[in-house]
Amino acid sequence: MDYATLKQRHRQERGEFHPNLSLRVHRALSWLQRAELADDVDGKFIFLWIAFNAAYATEVHEEHRITEKLVFAEFLEKLVSLDADDQLGKLVWEEFPGSIRVLLNNRFVFQGFWDYQNRVISQQDWEGHFDRARVAAQIALGKQDTTTVLGITLNRTYTLRNQVIHGGATWNSSVNRDQLRDCVAFMSKLIPVILTLMMDNPGTLWGDACYPVVQSY
Description:
The chain is an all-alpha fold.
């Protein structure tokens, strides 16, 4: 699946969608298209993450605000429960099992490693956290627990997202190519599946989109 295929479907079906769903898909598709046009892996990664954010992010009142990781974990859980054809499972277990295992063993996309580098925690602490996280990931992989594996993988991707978006990496750097390539390959397949599942389930409550369109008068 690519932008053109999904956009054609959206045009055909959006009249039947709730405005919030249509807006989410429209925005996410615009960034997916931009990612497909990018000729550098850094740009692709940034645009793919924005597409993912456009799909899942919900406007939450400040007093009820929860962490972003929890929001997208709940979003993934909902998607897996709606995935009658196991599209996410096939993506994880047939197309990317090797890449996911490599990513889960990459210390440079594990937040604890950077907490240690910044002297927030000790070397013993970060290595213990990393070992426990790897065990948890291996158990989830062994059980073919799609929701947990996707959540762990996106948590790693979120660490890379923070590095890039917050200026903690250099464009076209030689030191982070492996993790960027793995994350781009995964997200370029994941996001079309997410948008397909959302359009397959227009009756599901997806929540208010962030920053709704406001008409000027």
